[in-house]
């Protein structure tokens, strides 16, 4: 099984990515997916407890008009806060390299989940190995474009 970096390293990488966004904007931290690699986008949800906007930068690929990401927490056990927020308040906003878009989030299920998981597997050949570290299945999250 491939090793994951230590948790402190993963958290530091997240902080650096957020800092790049804060100081350089989308130009330095957001990018579109390519055929063999995922892109990065910024997701803003409403906090389930605070009611305040919360933002995070995630990896994604596009499936038609939808943005697809994984609800993993650096492959740690707990569900990521953004996913818990999105389940409580499914309407959110994504900022892609080409601009913002309002979305509605949901978990993929059944054949759709299998198809999208297979696409992630093409982008990350250690996906199943890393997902096996989590005590619960990793949600495949579909962010569907919505009209504002």
Question: What are the salient characteristics of this protein?
Answer:
single chain; 148 residues; alpha+beta; six-stranded antiparallel barrel; 5 helices; 32% strand; F420H2_quin_Rdtase; Split_barrel_FMN-bd; Nitroreductase
In words, what does this structure look like?
Belongs to the F420H(2)-dependent quinone reductase family. This is Nitroreductase. It catalyses: oxidized coenzyme F420-(gamma-L-Glu)(n) + a quinol + H(+) = reduced coenzyme F420-(gamma-L-Glu)(n) + a quinone. It comes from Actinoplanes campanulatus. The protein has 148 residues and is α+β, with helices and mostly antiparallel strands. 33% of the residues lie in helices and 32% in strands. The chain has helices at 7-24, 26-29, 81-88, 110-123, 127-131; strands at residues 39-46, 53-63, 66-71, 91-96, 99-107, 139-145. Strands 1-2-3-6-5-4 form a six-stranded antiparallel β-barrel. β1 (39-46) and β2 (53-63) form a beta hairpin. The N and C termini lie far apart (44 Å).
Task: Sum this structure up briefly.
It holds the Pfam family F420H2_quin_red. The protein has helices at 7-24, 26-29, 81-88, 110-123, 127-131, and strands spanning 39-46, 53-63, 66-71, 91-96, 99-107, 139-145.
């Amino acid at each position: 099984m491939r090793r994951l970096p230590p948790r402190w390293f993963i958290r530091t990488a997240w902080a650096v990515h957020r800092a790049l966004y804060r100081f350089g904007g989308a130009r330095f931290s957001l990018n579109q997916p390519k055929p063999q690699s995922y892109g990065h986008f910024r997701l803003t949800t409403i906090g389930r407890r605070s009611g305040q906007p919360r933002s995070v930068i995630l990896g994604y690929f596009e499936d038609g008009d939808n943005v697809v990401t994984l609800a993993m927490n650096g492959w740690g056990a707990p569900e990521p806060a953004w996913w818990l927020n999105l389940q409580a308040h499914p309407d959110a906003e994504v900022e892609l390299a080409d601009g913002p878009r309002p979305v509605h989030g949901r978990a993929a299920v059944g054949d759709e989940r299998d198809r999208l998981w297979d696409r992630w597997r093409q982008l990350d050949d250690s996906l199943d190995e890393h997902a096996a570290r989590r005590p619960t299945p990793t949600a495949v999250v579909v962010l569907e474009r919505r009209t504002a």
